[in-house]
Write a structure and sequence with these properties.
Blueprint: H1 4-19, H2 32-48, E1 53-55, H3 56-62, E2 73-77, H4 82-90, E3 94-96, E4 106-109, E5 114-120, E6 150-151, H5 154-164, H6 167-179, H7 184-192, H8 196-214
Parallel strand pairs: 1-6, 2-5
Antiparallel strand pairs: 1-2, 3-4, 4-5
Helix pairs in contact: 2-4, 5-6, 5-7, 6-8
Length: 215
């Protein structure tokens, strides 16, 4: 349920994120509860010697959509390390949350009360009525390095947003284009090597982004 305290916290967080845009360059720099969860995940990654990237709303914020604030943390994990990660998490302040059969795993940091959504390599994004034509890449293909969380790179983030195919994700891509016009060709080249459907979707959203920027 929405409460006054919750709304106040979200507004304060949004203000803090806007103010910290120039120096909060890594996931570990996120403030308060979110930074604690990132560092707790780093501890797990180091324990099992695994790489991962932050995707979702926090990555959208990092790549320029400064109005984007989310309550969860989304991470991409290698397919063969997911169960090991979940087992380690259950002994390190997290609990595994129940999900419907076929849905991707979720855990919750019990102290911070923040959910971490797992995006497993090889899983197929999309909606019930429209699955993506591609699968989630290995985090090393998305900018991961070492045993601490990194933000997903911009082309990879756009790829996953287009693969998800929801209206919210398409809106995020429009804002990412507006914030990164100098990277449009880089994104195009990346998408052309992934799937032609993504190229077509991107071009449509690029037109929307240009129209909004010209208003």
């Amino acid at each position: 349920m929405l409460t006054l305290d919750h709304l106040t916290e979200q507004l304060e967080l949004a203000d803090e994120m806007r103010a910290g845009r120039d120096h909060m360059l890594e996931p570990q720099d996120l403030p308060g509860r979110f930074g604690r969860v990132i560092r707790a995940v780093d501890h797990l990654l180091e324990a099992i010697d695994c790489s991962a990237v932050v995707a979702g709303g926090w990555a959208v914020w990092r790549h320029g959509y400064i109005g984007r604030v989310t309550e969860d943390v989304d991470i991409v994990l290698p397919a063969n390390r997911v169960e090991e990660f979940l087992t380690a998490a259950s002994f390190s302040g997290f609990e595994r949350l129940p999900v419907r059969p076929g849905n991707w795993p979720k855990i919750r940091h019990k102290d911070a009360d923040i959910k971490v959504d797992i995006l497993p390599e090889g899983a197929t994004p999309g909606t019930i009525t429209r699955l993506a034509p591609t699968n989630i890449p290995h985090p090393d293909q998305l900018g991961a390095s070492g045993n601490s969380l990194k933000y997903i790179d911009l082309p990879g983030l756009v790829e996953l947003k287009l693969a998800a195919g929801r209206a919210r994700d398409e809106s995020d891509v429009v804002e990412l284009i507006r914030a990164n016009l100098d990277q449009v060709e880089v994104i195009r080249r990346h998408l052309s090597g992934v799937h032609r459907q993504y190229v077509s979707m991107f071009e449509t959203l690029y037109v929307k982004a240009k129209e909004q920027s010209d208003e």
